[in-house]
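Long-time lurker, first post. I've been practising inverse folding by hand and with some scripts of my own, and I keep getting stuck on stretches where the structure tokens seem ambiguous. Below is the full token string for one chain I'm working on. Before anyone asks, I'm not after the true native sequence, just a reasonable design that respects the backbone. If someone could post their per-position residues I'd love to compare against what I wrote down in my notebook.
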């Protein structure tokens, strides 16, 4: 009897298979077959295919939080802390960049309203962790404005990253710095 795979092992297997066939064509029974287990071993950790997407983005959030522990971070200004953290988040997704984009398109398909709502919650959660790891202390209306503006910077940077896989990190960092220095966000980050 094969040993039941861990949630991480299942996710890694699914991502590797999706690199070959694409996210849309990936089936959980194929993941189970690849691991030599039944679907019940997959269901033990993931109730549906989209739970793998959430786990993938959780892994990126964890990389952001790990970078937030860096001893160099407190000495950096707010802009630079935010830059370092988002680059760590994107770096965690980089090994499966194409599949990551396919996952988002899957969520945006008409009829996937439940996945779209979860996607909005995911964006909000990631931005919250991004702010926390950057040790942002703004309150009330300033916090609300900062969250809204950071959400825009996060989404624009993420979409750009997905659409330009050959761009080097220095150019991506320059784009992100520009996002963080635009309009009222620069004022909030310097408070």
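-- Answer (accepted) --
I ran through it position by position. Result:
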């Amino acid at each position: 009897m094969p040993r039941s795979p861990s949630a991480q092992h299942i996710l890694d297997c699914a991502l590797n298979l999706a690199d070959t066939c694409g996210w849309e064509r990936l089936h959980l029974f194929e993941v189970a077959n690849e691991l030599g287990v039944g679907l019940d071993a997959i269901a033990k950790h993931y109730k549906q295919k989209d739970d793998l997407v959430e786990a993938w983005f959780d892994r990126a959030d964890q990389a952001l939080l790990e970078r937030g522990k860096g001893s160099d971070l407190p000495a950096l200004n707010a802009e630079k802390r935010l830059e370092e953290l988002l680059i760590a988040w994107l770096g965690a997704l980089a090994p499966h960049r194409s599949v990551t984009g396919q996952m988002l398109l899957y969520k945006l398909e008409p009829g996937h309203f439940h996945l779209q709502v979860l996607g909005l919650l995911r964006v909000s959660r990631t931005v919250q962790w991004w702010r926390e790891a950057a040790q942002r202390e703004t309150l009330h209306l300033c916090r609300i404005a900062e969250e809204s503006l950071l959400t825009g910077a996060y989404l624009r940077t993420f979409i750009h990253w997905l659409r330009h896989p050959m761009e080097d990190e220095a150019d991506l960092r320059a784009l992100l710095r520009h996002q963080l220095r635009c309009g009222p966000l620069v004022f909030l980050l310097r408070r």
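A couple of notes from the structure itself: The radius of gyration is 18 Å. The CA atoms of residues 28 and 140 lie 44 Å apart. Happy to go over any region you disagree with.
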